[in-house]
Amino acid sequence: MADASSSIPPIRRSPDFEGTRDGAAAHWNATAWVPLPQRGRPMETKLQVLYSTTGLYLLFHCEDDTLHATLQADFVDLWTEDVVKVFLWPDDAFPAYFEYELSPLDYELPIIVPNNDGNFWGWRPWHYEGPGTTWRANFYRIDYEGGAMATWEWQPTDASFHTTEAFGTIRFD
Which CATH class, in words, describes the domain spanning 4-171? Predict the structure, then answer.
């Protein structure tokens, strides 16, 4: 499969805005949809990405026949049901990355994933300085239908979503 990292144009800067589930904010008109290739069912999955001086904005569009989401709390095992996942690795010289999961019911699971040959490292994003304009990243969707899991991946991984070597590159303009 071709490297899809070139399929995300430079991420555009936007003024801060209030995000909504329906993506109605006019700011989304400034950026293109990026398709996520699927492994499994033929349901469209795509995302848009913007950033501002205070944060990163992501909008996912996920077609689905049947919603499988029952967990109703933040910080629980959301990956066991329908979910979208974002992996951000601002500095690949630093062996920790951020994983963010969001359920269709708007529950969140933010995770710091340290990986330095078994040594613990922490990352506090609100104090993180100088990550640069190019980050490693990946975007996923998991959907459960009839007891089977289907996945959509911006950059394909073989063994695990956490295969950092397979992450693509995003660039902020």
Answer: mainly beta
Residue ranges per domain, the chain?
4-171
State the pTM of this model.
Answer: 0.84
Check residue 14 and report its DSSP letter. Answer: -
Is there a contact between 49 and 170 (Cβ–Cβ < 8 Å)? Answer: yes
Q: How far apart (Å, rounded) are the C-alpha atoms in residues 156 and 69?
A: 24
pLDDT tens digits, 88-102: 998 888 878 899 999
HSE-CB of 136 using CA atoms within 13 angstroms:
16
Query: Residue 126 — φ and ψ, nearest 5°?
Result: -75, -10
What is d(CA 100, CA 53) in angstroms, rounded to the nearest whole number?
Answer: 19
The residues that bridge with 171 in the sheet, in sequence order, are 134
